[in-house]
Amino acid sequence: ANGAHVPVLIIGTGYGGSVAALRLAQAGVDVNMIEMGMAWDTPGSDGKIFCTTTAPDQRSYWLRTKTKAPLNYFLGFPIDRNISRYTGILDAEEFSGITVYQGRGVGGGSLVNGGMAVTPKRENFGTVLPSVNPDEMYTTYYPRANAGLGVGTIDPAWFDTTDCYQFARVGRKHAQRSGFPFVFVPDVYDWNYMKQEAAGTATKSALAGEILYGNNYGKKSLQKTYIAQAKATGRVTISPLHRVTRVAPAAGGGYTVVIEQLNTTGDVTATKTVTSDRVFFAAGSVGTSKLLVKLKATGALPNLNGEIGKGWGDNGNVMCGRANHLWDPTGSLQSTIPCAGIDNWAAGGAFAEVAPLPTGIETFASFYLSITKNPNRAQFSWNAATSTVDLNWQTAWKQPSIDMAKTIFDKINSKEGTIYRTDLFGVYKIWGDHLTYHPLGGAVLNKATDNYGRLTAYPGLYVIDGSLIPGNTSVNPFVTITALAERNIEKIITTDL
Ligand code: FDA
Q: Is 0.90 exceeded by the ipTM?
């Protein structure tokens, strides 16, 4: 409530925020979480909380009047459609050189993501988080994160026979025929539930085109794991449709936090001010970076150091499709949950997920999201003229990612006698190089913060989300974000509280 004084306020309810809330509450601390998106706990008029990718409605996008699907063309025709402006679940946030997709709502990115829960190979960890001791991560914090998230792997025997992974078996065949290692990728989707979907004994979710705009069943989003546990302590309060706009030192100690309440068309209906002894920035790489850059530049937190806003990367994301021969159909029924990838990281700098194209019809297409070792890093900066935060990423900076992805797909195409699809991202455009799902960095660990996420110029302010990670995790990022948050909050609880 307006004027309240609280011990801990957490900005955002994604992975970092949910870990912090649970562990602080278990340590006996009362926690208030502020989330700009909706609660996503109430069904719409169709009886479902979330809409499907094939029939997106107002619930799909954050304050847009037209959908902005990542894969926005098919057979050369644009597939985006008009929707009414609403505080929907997926934000396609546009910067000058890149569109950054992010989840909006209680659970953050866990609401919209594919649930692929990948621990980086230990040999790559030194480049992922160079200042963190790998031993403690691989013996304690990665296992703790995997347990907390409910990570599991597909039953390989079921994979070999089920219709809904025919597309992935085609991916395996082509990878192996070209000599690439094919690996199963763990996921937080409930694999037993998916078997029941396939058998017709449970309501379909992954097998009904649900993913990008939320899964109604089956996926263990943070709402079902960390946040459920945090709520069960009785110490955690969550305020959805509330957006933090300012954090500044309070006269009597602690921090004054300004919060705007939103309605479902995005208008500000009230502005509240609370005081908190400690504030955790967990608004995601983009959300936290934007807030900190603005607060430093506008004089609310002028002593934040010069690393704020730097070291941002796109995790090397790039997408492409391949056209298969008629004897390699990928199936009209495709699970929306990817379960496997092609590992060419060591030799070619690319790890490619075999992704579904769940259109409901046979497309003869193989679709891939590659994570690559792209070395480019961008910076957020305050634009005083427009009062917004800019990101200086350029579209051309994806070229290294394309080159790395080609180490896999040029070889597969040549072996199979196939070609790239040119109709998925525009008219005659092969590469989906305009976007990322994996924003990382902007408040890098041991640079913008100390080695545990403390903003040392301001005791009691912490960063605890993907903005701590310097731009690339070599695999999908949320397990690393969760494990790092587990490590940092344990230290903070034992030494700062
Ligand atoms: P996260 O973004 O999760 O949470 C931040 C929260 O803060 C959001 O809920 C936001 O609304 C809120 N917020 C922001 N600003 C605020 C403000 N000023 N006031 C109040 N609240 C504010 N990763 C992976 O490992 N495997 C995968 O399969 C995928 N797939 C995938 C698909 C798609 C479509 C997307 C968009 C993303 C993925 N990801 C993924 C990425 C993964 O979801 C992402 O890395 C994490 O969600 C990031 O976690 P954080 O805790 O950093 O922030």
A: yes
| CB of residue 109 inside a 6 A radius of ligand 1 | yes
Helix (H) or strand (E) holding 259: strand 255-262
Which residues belong to the active site?
A: 353, 438
Most informative mutation of 102, 222, 295, 488 for ligand 1 (most atoms within 8 A of CB)? 102
163 residue type, one letter: D
Q: Where are the beta strands (DSSP E) in 304-356?
A: 318-323, 340-344, 350-355
**Which CA distances in Å does 347 have to 7, 332, 376?**
49, 34, 19
Interatomic CA distance for residues 491 and 174, integer angstroms = 46
Under the banding of pLDDT at 50, 70 and 90, the label for residue 396 is very high
Looking at the DSSP assignment, which residues form a beta bridge with residue 350?
Answer: 344, 372
Q: Please indicate whether residue 175, judged by its CB atom, sits closer than 6 Å to ligand 1.
A: no
CA–centroid distance, 76 to ligand 1, in Å, is 30
CA–CA distance, 51 with 175 (Å, rounded to integer)? 33
pLDDT category, 1, cuts 50, 70, 90?
confident
Q: 189 CB contacts (<8 Å, ≥6 apart)?
A: 115, 152, 206, 215, 218, 219, 220, 337
* Residue 31 parent element (H or E): strand 31-34
Q: Cα–Cα distance between 402 and 329 in angstroms, integer? A: 26
Of 9, 17, 136, the residue nearest 489 (C-alpha): 17
